[in-house]
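Sanity check

After download, print the first record. It should look like this:
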Amino acid sequence: MTYQIVYWGFVRRETRTVNNEWYADLGARWYAADDTPIALLRAESRHRNPWIASAIGETPRDVLDLGCGAGFLSNYLATQGHHVTGIDTTTENLIVAKLHDETRLVAYQKGDACELPFPDASFDVVCAMDLLEHVEEPHRLIAEASRVLRPGGTFFFHTFNRNWLSNLIVIKGVSQFVRNTPEDLHVLRLFITPQELTAMLNARGLDVVELLGSRPRFRWPLWRMLLTGRVGDDFAFTFTPSTKLGYTGIAKKIDQGVRGRRYHAPPESETRSASSSLAS
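Expected structure tokens:
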């Protein structure tokens, strides 16, 4: 109990800011480096992108990728036939994204996800993958995402839960075991619990219909990373019932205020069996 009081007191007092500037200096390393945390983001994208595409379906959709970075998701969805717009605050990231756009069809532009330059109801799908934990006011981003979504549209998201375990693994673990991890790549106070995020989404007419945890697969590439600090192309993630670390979800924009069955995130006190949370 004493540890928990001290821990949460620290979280409330934390004033560090996340190091978003680091991404602008990656250049070609976005797609090539194995000695940097960006390789973990590539591995996450390889895992999530097909799942997102499957959830969207084969019918071409108008998709907005918020905080698109170097285009891991935008470029993939474009190859699946969707009409994709990628927005990011960093010009250098957009240059790399365009270089890797095989379709040459993605509309990349510089902009702020909290102040989108698009009319209401412009998109069928909006994605915010690994972005919510990088902004100071995620409720503003969610409000804008809902605004530009058409009724019945889909919002995809991935972020990190805020607790002692995510601090230990996502922040301290990555810093300790992955080479060239910059200071403040992530900041614990900006992590969001599933309960908090569900409330923010519901407040903007977005109902969560699916929520999945994610974690690395417990296989040789993970142990190799722990030994060498390098993240190989065979490093892989998997979905899991536990949302204690990262979690991915789908929310639907309610059509004209008619609400369906709403997802309720489980309480933080709920525990899951080790066999469920560690299943491959």
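If your output differs, re-run the checksum step. Summary of this record's structure: The domain at 14-255+273-277 is CATH 3.40.50.150 (Rossmann fold).
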